[in-house]
Amino acid sequence: MSFEYPQDLRYLDSHEYVRLDGDIATIGISEFAVDQLGDIVFLELPEIGEAIAVGETFGTIESVKAVEELNSPVTGTVIERNDALIESPEQVADDPYGEGWFLKVRINDAAEIEDAMTADEYRALVEGE
């Protein structure tokens, strides 16, 4: 299967992605991660107003195969969360880079995402190049 790796995103080795728009970061998980998880049955996300920190766990995603922690690529405050996914977590698989986002975070320091992988670096990691 061929996966998409949008060039405008940065990625963590734990498969979260971040899209930066000014000081707002949108966080989700990659198409590759969705494929590895299989059928997603549960998603736990922080509340609006909660602070999250780069490298720390902000929630969990559960599939029929595994429970995985979600790690933050940025430090900031949650300003929006995708409640539709909490009610119907399987929808993550339909559009992980679009409607399948998890959180929107007002970030403290945009330079943090420089530590995350580019699309090409992430592709090389997951495709074992």
Automatic annotation (TrEMBL):
Cofactor(s) it depends on: (R)-lipoate
Residue span, Lipoyl-binding domain: 24-106
Chain positions found as N6-lipoyllysine: K65
Entry keyword annotation includes Ion transport: no
Highest rank taxon of the organism: Bacteria
A GO cellular component annotation in the UniProt record: cytosol
Record key words, sorted: Lipoyl
Free-text remark on how the cofactor is bound: Binds 1 lipoyl cofactor covalently.
Gene Ontology biological process: glycine decarboxylation via glycine cleavage system; protein lipoylation
Subunit structure and binding partners: The glycine cleavage system is composed of four proteins: P, T, L and H.
Family: Belongs to the GcvH family.
UniProt xrefs under HAMAP family: GcvH
PANTHER family, per the entry: GLYCINE CLEAVAGE SYSTEM H PROTEIN, GLYCINE CLEAVAGE SYSTEM H PROTEIN-RELATED
Role description: The glycine cleavage system catalyzes the degradation of glycine. The H protein shuttles the methylamine group of glycine from the P protein to the T protein.
Protein name: Glycine cleavage system H protein
Natural source organism: Cuspidothrix issatschenkoi CHARLIE-1
Taxonomic lineage of the native organism: Bacteria, Bacillati, Cyanobacteriota, Cyanophyceae, Nostocales
Name of the gene this protein is made from: gcvH
